[in-house]
Design brief:
By secondary structure, this protein is of the alpha+beta class. The chain folds into two domains: 194 residues, D-Maltodextrin-Binding Protein, domain 2, CATH 3.40.190.10; 221 residues, D-Maltodextrin-Binding Protein, domain 2. The chain contains 19 helices and nine strands. Strands 1, 2, 3, 6, 7, 8 and 9 form a seven-stranded mixed sheet that branches. The chain has a two-stranded antiparallel sheet with strand order 4-5.
Length: 436
C-alpha cells in the first residue's frame, strides 16, 4: 500500500511538473452553438497536443468584436487565437495585424477549402484566417404555395420571377406574405441583404476612385424594387424585421419566400420548430442577367494576431479546429447534421452529409456564386460581397441602413434616402482621405 501511494505521489508530481511546463494559449471566441460545441470536444486536441493548454474567453458577438478589435489595434497581446468574421480579415491583414497561416500541416489540405470562402480570407494569395463555418444566402420557399400559384421555382430565378411569385402567393386574408426580407437597420442586418441585392442590379458602393455611387440609377433601381416589393407583398412592420423575426414568420407559415442565410435551412426544415418543415424548397438568390446574384458570403474564422508569442501552438490549434478530422469528430459525437457547414468541398461530396442535409448542394452552389474579390458587375477598389472591407464601413453601413429602413417604413422617399446616403458616404470618404 505504501509503495502504491508513493508511486501515485510520484506520478502526480510528474504530471504537475509537466503541466507547469505546458504552453498555454488564450482563445477569444463567440458564444454561438458551434463554438460552444467545439469547447466540449477539445479533449481530442489536448490528447494529441499534451504540451498545449487552452484558455477560453467566450463572448457575445458585439462584445467579442469590440474586445478583439481593441486588443489587436493596440497590440495588447491578450489573445493568441481570435474568432473574427470575413469583414475583418482583409482589413487587418493589410495592416499586418494577422499572421499568415502557412504552418497548418501537410495533412491540412488548404486546397479543400471552398475557393469563395478562402478568397474572402486571403490577401495577395495568402490565407490569414481559417474558416470554422461559412454561409451564403439563398431563397427558401413554400413548395405548396408555389404550386398553388401555378408556378415552378427555377433553381436560378430572376428578380422578376420573385416579384411575380410574391404577388401570386400573397394572401393577406390568411396571413400569408408573398416574401419576407430583412428591413431592420444595420450594416449586418438590412444592408447585408441590400448590398448583396444591389450587386445583382449592377450597383456598387464606390467607383474605382472611391466616389460614392448612391446617386446612380443602379441604386435607385435596387431600392425602389425592394421597397415596392415589400410594401405590396411583405409583412407588416417589415422595417423592424431582421433574421430572427423573419425566421419566426417563415416557421409559422407566414412567408411564401424568404431570402436569407443558408444556415437557416436547418431551422426551417426542423419539424420540432417549423410548421412548414416538410414543404420547404431552396433556390439560388435572384439575379438580373448581369452575371451577379443577390447572395452574400460570410465565415466565422480563426486567426492569429501578429503580437502573439505563441504562434506555433496557436497554429496547431487553428489547424485542429478547422480540419477535416474535426468535422468527422463532430459527426461521430453529434451526427452529420450538426457538422459546421460551408468550409470544405469534401464535406459536400460526402454522401452521409448529403442525406442529413438535403439543402447541402444549394448551399454550396450559393457559396460558389459569390466572389468577394470581384463582387460587382462594374470594377470596384474594395473586396467584400455584402460589405466593403474598409474600417469606415461599420459606421457608414449602419447610417445608410437607417436611411433605407426609413424608406421601407414610409418615413422618407426612396429618392430622399438615396440623396442622404450619397451625402453621408461622401462626407465619410472625404474625412477618411479616400476622396478630395
Amino acid at each position: 500500500m505504501k509503495l502504491r501511494t508513493l508511486t501515485l505521489g510520484l506520478l502526480s508530481a510528474s504530471t504537475l511538473a509537466f503541466a507547469a511546463h505546458a504552453e498555454s494559449i488564450t482563445i477569444a471566441t463567440v458564444n454561438n452553438g458551434d463554438m460552444v460545441r467545439m469547447q466540449t470536444l477539445t479533449d481530442d486536441f489536448t490528447a494529441k497536443n499534451p504540451d498545449i493548454q487552452l484558455q477560453w474567453v467566450t463572448l457575445e458577438e458585439n462584445v467579442l468584436r469590440e474586445r478583439v478589435t481593441t486588443d489587436i489595434a493596440t497590440k495588447g497581446g491578450q489573445y493568441d487565437v481570435m474568432t473574427i468574421g470575413t469583414y475583418e480579415v482583409p482589413i487587418w491583414a493589410k495592416q499586418s495585424w494577422l499572421l499568415p497561416l502557412d504552418k497548418l500541416g501537410d495533412d491540412y489540405d488548404v486546397k479543400d477549402i471552398i475557393p469563395a470562402i478562402a478568397g474572402g480570407l486571403s490577401v495577395d494569395g495568402k490565407l490569414y484566417a481559417a474558416p470554422f463555418y461559412g454561409e451564403s444566402s439563398f431563397i427558401m420557399y413554400r413548395k405548396d404555395l408555389m404550386e398553388k400559384a401555378g408556378l415552378t421555382m427555377p433553381d436560378a430565378p430572376t428578380w422578376d420571377f420573385v416579384k411575380q411569385a410574391a404577388e401570386k402567393m400573397t394572401d393577406r386574408a390568411n396571413g400569408v406574405n408573398g416574401v419576407c426580407l430583412r428591413g431592420k437597420a444595420g450594416w449586418g442586418e438590412n444592408m447585408a441583404f441590400l448590398t448583396a441585392m444591389s450587386n445583382s442590379f449592377g450597383a456598387r458602393w464606390f467607383d474605382e476612385n472611391w466616389k460614392p455611387q448612391f446617386d446612380q440609377p443602379e441604386w435607385k433601381n435596387t431600392l425602389q424594387f425592394y421597397v415596392d416589393l415589400m410594401k405590396a407583398n411583405g409583412p407588416e412592420g417589415a422595417s423592424s424585421n431582421g433574421f430572427n423575426e423573419n425566421l419566426a414568420l417563415f416557421q409559422q407559415g407566414k412567408c411564401g419566400m424568404w431570402i436569407d442565410a443558408t444556415v437557416a435551412a436547418s431551422f426551417v426544415s426542423d419539424p420540432k420548430n417549423s410548421t412548414v418543415a416538410d414543404k420547404v424548397g431552396y433556390a439560388l438568390a435572384p439575379d438580373n442577367g448581369l452575371g451577379k446574384r443577390g447572395n452574400w458570403l460570410w465565415a466565422w474564422s480563426l486567426a492569429i494576431p501578429a503580437g502573439t508569442q505563441k504562434a506555433d501552438a496557436a497554429q496547431k490549434f487553428v489547424a485542429w479546429a478547422t480540419s477535416k478530422d474535426y468535422l468527422e469528430l463532430v459527426a461521430s459525437k453529434e451526427g452529420w447534421a450538426n457538422v459546421p457547414p460551408g468550409t470544405r468541398s469534401s464535406l459536400y461530396a460526402n454522401s452521409e452529409y448529403q442525406k442529413a442535409a438535403p439543402f447541402a448542394k444549394m448551399t454550396l452552389d450559393s457559396i460558389n456564386a459569390a466572389d468577394p474579390t470581384h463582387p460587382t458587375v462594374k470594377p470596384v477598389p474594395y473586396v467584400g460581397v455584402q460589405f466593403v472591407a474598409i474600417p469606415e464601413f461599420q459606421g457608414l453601413g449602419t447610417t445608410v441602413g437607417q436611411l433605407f429602413s426609413a424608406a421601407l417604413a414610409g418615413q422618407t422617399s426612396v429618392d430622399d434616402a438615396l440623396k442622404q446616403a450619397q451625402d453621408a458616404a461622401t462626407a465619410t470618404m472625404t474625412e477618411g482621405g479616400y476622396i478630395q
